[in-house]
């Protein structure tokens, strides 16, 4: 696009972000502060993910953008159109065809492959934030590996509800060291983080933090021996592709309580329907 | 058969067309011109320049027009443009002591060298709607004074000479640059002042006000408020000296606050500082109050009010960040909501089962 550099950000900024990313890859799960820039989209709408995507994108990359698992939700459409405009890269909705996938709140159902990069949009990168609001304090807690409060919080959930009441942004421990917020993905997706063959990058624009999980890194969801981590399950199947093992969105079909369930991952759902057709 | 809704792309394009149409308004009326906004909505332009941290009144006016007068949207537009600009040079520190004064008042002395200069102010206007403006009456031009203003020394320097107020020291260190580096809490005063200078005026106003009502009271006096043009100089290596590259209009507020001191240190007044682009007086007053409140720890005061908590105040002052994150609630959250729904249904089912078991276990009248 005229007047702007390839992928919007200037080369110095992109290099600064890539250097921060290298540090993040070297220290899995550690939040690296970076000089986040304003993007022409609002903070909270994926500016962190967009800065990462802009920094790693090359002219021959194929980009996929999903929001809530879907390629056609308004913000996914908007971000995809942005990169088509400022980088002119090829875009796709097919998970297996993409080299870079920017996502909000989901990990695709189709297993990722070596060489693929998944870029997460992160609103609040600090997993300890809602226990300790001060950044000064939480950085110290990470440095000292002082994560007891996190387990206390999960325990309090069990004492009160009989279950851990965290259903998304469920905290994980990366490579046995840093407790990390996996972004607000449903805990259904947490097992996909573990030993992922793809590189996982996380960008928080407003909070100016980025972090990473390198390929084949151990990622454990926090739990207790007597309350092991478990994921959501549905009694229903996808009304479109009959999948019984994907994350399902509930769709209200009428005003008489009618509802059905469909895959949140639109590409997965479509490819299953094509296969069976 | 259920078919998922598609067509986000077209919906977005149509929404933007409708927005542009609404912004233009009634085609029977002349379109608002950017130079009209620049010249006649001056204070709006100044606020947008300040909170966007870009001194360009034409582009600020364009942003206001494009945002249909939504100030936070306009700040965002200008800020997003600013971030794409190359940094060609860093100016010498501005000297507001050499300001070409348009307005200058002190609330601490009745008469001061250089005098009290009211300048263009809404102070002392009676807030009565002027229906003449509605009837498009012509406003008479202001007559320039016969004599140029006398030089105005900084009031706080007069106190400084007597040792009554703490001295501001330049320790020569390179100040932080909040536009390039992430905040590293606790941040120093230079970074704090930068964050306050681009902070939302309404937010700073409320926080400053809260200190006056007892949440971190610091007994302020408006030592001096000045408004006018200040020269911007850039040091040119080849010439071995600084040259003036232009002027910026600034508002500055120097607040004098209650003294500190101890058995070892002589009591002295303390300072709070506010600075903003253009005519932005309310902002600088509020900023000075909050700056002083944030010095609580440094001055050995008890931290009791929200305005004194640095991370709280600074992390939430930026209206571009705040408005983005609040408005992101409008984005789809189907997945997280579905996760919560699933858990809530499970918890309720378990609750009902428990209640049901209890009823069965409870002794009935027959069994008694």
The CATH class of the largest domain in chain A is Alpha Beta
How are the strands of the biggest sheet of chain B laid out side by side?
A: 1-2-3-4
Work out the helicity level of chain B. Answer: 25-40%
**End-to-end CA span of chain B:** 57 Å
Can you give keywords for this protein?
heterodimer; A: 277 residues; alpha/beta; Rossmann fold; 7-stranded mixed β-sheet; 7 helices; B: 368 residues; alpha+beta; 2 domains; 4-stranded antiparallel β-sheet; 13 helices; 4 strands
Task: Characterize this entry briefly.
The complex is a heterodimer of chains A (277) and B (368). Chain A has 277 residues and is an alpha/beta fold.
Structure in words:
The complex is a heterodimer of chains A (277) and B (368). Chain A has 277 residues and is α/β, with parallel strands linked by helices. Chain A has 7 helices and 12 strands. In chain A, the strands form 3 sheets. A 7-stranded mixed beta sheet of chain A has the order 1-9-8-5-4-2-3. In chain A, helix 3 links the parallel strand 2 and strand 3. In chain A, helix 1 crosses helix 2. Chain A is globular and about 55 Å long. Chain B has 368 residues and is an alpha+beta fold. Helix content of chain B is 39%, strand content 14%. Chain B contains 13 helices and 4 strands. The chains are: A alpha/beta (277), B alpha+beta (368). Chains A and B meet through helix 3 and strand 11 of A and helix 1, helix 5, helix 11, helix 12 and helix 13 of B.
